[in-house]
Amino acid sequence: MAKTCLFCESTGPFTEEDLNSKWMRKAKLFPEGPEWRYDITKELGGRPYPTRRLTSPTTKVPGVCLRCNTRWMSGLERRSKPLLIPMIKDYRTVLAPRDQSVIARWITMKTMVSEWHEVLAGRYFFEKSERRAMGINQTMPVTARVWLARHREYLFPFSRGVLFTDAAFTALASTLVYGHFVAQALVVHRKRDSAKNVTPASDSQGWTVEIWSPSREEREEAWPPQESLDNRTLKSFQERWELQSRWLSA
Prior knowledge:
By secondary structure, the protein is α+β, with helices and mostly antiparallel strands. It has one domain (14-247). Helix content is 26%, strand content 33%. Helix 3 (72-88) crosses helix 4. It is globular. It starts with 13 loop residues before the first strand and ends with a strand.
């Protein structure tokens, strides 16, 4: 049992957060039963870590206090729902800057909760200060970037986190898939002053729409992007990271 809240570090009372949003089940976006699959994989320097396969859409994550769960997290789920359902169902939509901000925060919240559930050797990527900033006023990590994409097929929900390390930084790239909706978030922690950076390979295929970055100018974005992913290109999309024009490796 958690001793402090994942986000605000309060000492309780505690509740459990749904790994998959409750409104997705109520909207019957995905079938119930053993067909449900939720995979969480982490890789460090290209070496795979064990994958946990969950066969229940009702998996809950302990460690969130009642105040966070029923206030800001519930509010973020409520604002995200009408924005996400059209993309999950594959309807064209235009996202205003405020809509993009809501979706980016929802994706980051889900990534933080997923990591808490699937801890890597007792070490969490997100720092306490980042989780606390998200809990207090939903502030995004300073280096966060978020992209949206579309899959041609209607996929069951799953996520994959790829953790990269270098002498100068650690970076986490998380991909979440719900139906036709695909999202990817990147956060970089620099260990010291360095000119090195983690960047996505050139999106010459037109797979993505970027909705959040520290330097991005606010503007409306249309979804879906120019091109869609299939099962083969989804894998490439998950692993599209470069370090100084080289594929990232430990």
